[in-house]
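Let's practice the habit of predicting before peeking. Look at the sequence and jot down your guess about where helices and strands might fall. Then scroll down.
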Amino acid sequence: MPGTRSNTKQLGRTNKVSEVARRHEHFMQEALVLAAAAADAGDVPVGCVIVRDNEVIGRGANEIQRMGDPTRHAEMVAIEDAVRTIGEKFLEDCTIYVTLEPCAMCAGAIVLSRIPSVVYGASDEKTGACRSVFELVDDPRLNHRAVVRTGILESKCSAILSEFFSERRQRSDDVEEEAPLKQKGILWLVPTPIGNLDDMTLRAVKTLREADVIVCEDTRHTSPMLKRYDVPKKPLLSYHEHNERDRAREIVDRIAKGQRIALVSDAGMPGISDPGYRAVRACIEAGQTVTALPGASAMVTAAAASGLPTDVLTFVGFPPQKKGRVAFLERHLHNAATVIMYESPYRVLDLMRDVEKVTGPDRPAVVARELSKLHEEYIRGTVGSIVEDLSKRISIKGECVVLVGGQEEHGDA
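Done guessing? Here is the structure:
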């Protein structure tokens, strides 16, 4: 009967539409979970999933604040994830679901990835991004066509955004009302690895991420390290022996304004045979909070593995290179403590020869170099045997820690 066939055909079409709608809502709900996670981490709550054959192959949430990178939109993160998952550059048989309509940058990424279906929930009327999406996907010059569907779980997608910005405005109002109670600034001394980058502590990474400003010896050295540990981009101030007096005053002023300053050296504990003392002293005199995180230190590492007595240690840093060097060594080596010094690999042989002049050849000693690195080495023996060992080497590499046993225990003159 004609009427029966017509009703059956209409019913099949309705079921098909309902199935498509259910599929869209299911995957949009997954994107909403990612959006909520972004909000919890402090980012604008936008989530995205990419689907192929009804399976999610890519997930992403806004990582702009967490990564300090304005390009880390949910869509970009999801596309990268999908490409890694399937090992293909183009996503020609996929559908992308995102809780907020893509901006022009993300729409461009969608086109370049050749994603044929774009499904989003809420519309951002302030940016007019919707128009840019349609213009990009329908431009014949791009040789690409995409189907764009909108309004999937729109109320939920809009609600999570509204709630996020409402809470942020409320926090902003609270901060303004409580401005006199603003948390004091602080100076953190953050040790960094002396060689092996795996020696960075979780607390050190967390502190660097929380800092408003990072003060370092050499920004060219510190920048790659920060990138290694996913520390968001932030101001870096150089701090070295030639500018430490002026920079110390600036650090005091910044902390007085409530900034959190992290001070690092190129390696190890800042302030130990590295610039840092003046800043620490200036902050203490100004009544500001100074705290040091525990971490890698070349002198402690070398002493622990040297085999020399560690009940009494004297750390003297870098000895004078020329003038006053012998007097310096005589002052420190004529006592019972194990003496620890730092020295350049280019001058360590000369230092050991000078030590031999003061202690004689029989005093126990250790030279540790390349600590925590692949070619770590402890040269153990007497002062005389170490001089002989180093004299035979064509070259010596790596910063060195020199340890000399105490006088009284060994009875040398």
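How did you do? The longest helix spans residues 2-40.
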